[in-house]
Predict the structure of Alpha-glucuronidase.
Amino acid sequence: MKYSMAWLSYRRLPFYEGKEYFRKIYVQEEDEITGTAVYELCRGARELLGIKTVVIKLPEPFGQDERGKTEEGIYLLSDSKGPVGGGYRIAEENGRIRITAAEPEGLLYGSFDLIRLVQRGVSLRGIDRLKHPDNPLRMLNHWDNMDGSIERGYSGNSFFFRNDRVQVEERTEDYARLTASVGINGVVINNVNVTEKATRLITGEYADSLKRMVKIFSKYGIRLYLSLNFAAPMELGGLETADPEAEEVKAWWQEQMKETFRNIPSLGGFLVKADSEGRPGPFTYGRTQAQGANMLAEAVRPYGGIIIWRCFVYNCTQDWRDRKTDRARSAYDYFMPLDGKFEENVILQIKNGPMDFQVREPVSSLFGSLKNTNQMLEVQIAQEYTGQQRHVCYLIPQFKEILGFHTYCRKEEDTVADIVSGRSFSHKNCGMAAVANTGSDANWTGHDLAAANWFGFGRLAFDTSLSAEEIAREWCECTFGTDKAVVYAICKILLMSWPAYEKYTSPLGIGWMLTPNNHYGPNVDGYEYDRWGTYHRADHLGIGVERGKTGTGFTQTYLEPNASLYEEIETCPEELLLFFHYMPYTYRLKSGKTLIQHIYDSHFEGVEDVEEMVSLWEGLKGKIPEEVFERVMLRMDHQLDNSAEWRDQINSYFYRKSFIMDEKGRKIY
Ligand code: GCV
């Protein structure tokens, strides 16, 4: 086997009560996506149940009368009054399972859901499930480069690009299957840092291979998107400017888009990183982010395209001596004044927190503050700052907290989940995106357990009401089967992993403290005297960034009561205390412990948690495939060493800074 099929690696079920349903599939429509649904059901039946399925075309029209007289089997029924937007209903009655949806995508998602239920051994008798995707857009953002490398990639090379060429191969289809099976409907294949060859992806040069990719994606209801280079008019068109207000620039983009969409008519649109970390953007010309985004939006509008404009804009050449400039404020300060000024086909894509995917950050204050602008949540399942797929770090509990955060932008329906789903402000162009964690490794994600984040992101973006526990269990049962001991141990490891990572790395929301550039392993002062705006401000008396009114004022970018909650030390959630406030080491937390003692204790505990995770994994020997067991074991052994390194460096650093002994007298160096 060249590579695994992760949670779609079907293993034959020795006994399954609902086998008979799968002998016949009745289908009404003959469109491509419904065809895929049929193919997937047949494949599932063959591989899971050892059944050869007969596919029967239903007569047109197929109304209520006809439905009464049907035979046993599975029915894929399109019904304009059925669930819309990719939603579906699965209902069983008298030996007939009906999957009903208004659109073919719904039939596909319903079919994958049905297969998942079989994989998990769930009885289908009397089942009645109605599902509507919560988020209209459910996207993966790949940071893949044309040379085949992946920025922040931890599972091999790109399977989209190699040697400056677009690759379309068997793996493209398997990727589409996995991705669509969890409800993802949009994929950006290239890095947001668009340089050199990647700038040319919008030209005809790569059109043939991109078209082949689109053909595969479309079968699975996935739209292709590209990242673009804001300076393309200069780099490709030879213009002297990329000023969004210059007529020649507008004309260049309009002409280019005509060609791009002629080549790839179903292209969804573009993701843009502008004015960030050295990328070009409208600021160069004294223009706003809205002027930049709207100019592009106008060029793609005739083709139904959208512009997804990232809010990750900040000053990355800060002076560490400057205590007023605050990277956390940056996106808010640039984008808030522009609320309501973006075109309807622009979506602002906002990272979950105001810094950069740390293990703990507050939710970005743009959520809830922006009311008249389409917005999307961006999270990162590539574990750049959370152990780089060498550590287990199941991130779905973090995403649940983010989605559940009350912004107080309205009396009801005010959470991040409400906002990005479009419920709060009736937006249609909105949703969730994740920076992807896949690559050419045989298990797709480097660490086998990291696949739970890919699966989990898709499931959560589709259904934000699912709990992190439910998703972990689903993933585990689909991937490893339903043996209770296996499911218990793996779910426990997953659910312990994010809190453990938080405990043994940087304390109480301060973040960073890791090796510059590669972002792996501890280095407390690695970024402290650098230009990136990521400081902990520790001295011999205390630690933390003062972001209250007397500091950078970032607390005041939140709506009330959150602004006051974060401002006041007594009410500030302790897991974020050092993000918002500079605190003395002797400050007593609610637990009664001093801040310094909390740092020591949590670091010892974090490593103990990893020890427990390791022993849970050891208990799985012989219960899961040997190869997977060994591969994960190796990574877990490393995680244990690396977490101890974190513990020792952090504890020693703060002991040496504060000169306060550990009350428990443990070894600190
Ligand atoms: C793609 C962080 C990462 C960069 C990444 C950037 C972004 O700074 O370290 O590698 O660039 O975020 O989100 O654009």
User: Anything to note?
Assistant: The mean pLDDT is 97. The two ends are 48 Å apart (CA to CA).
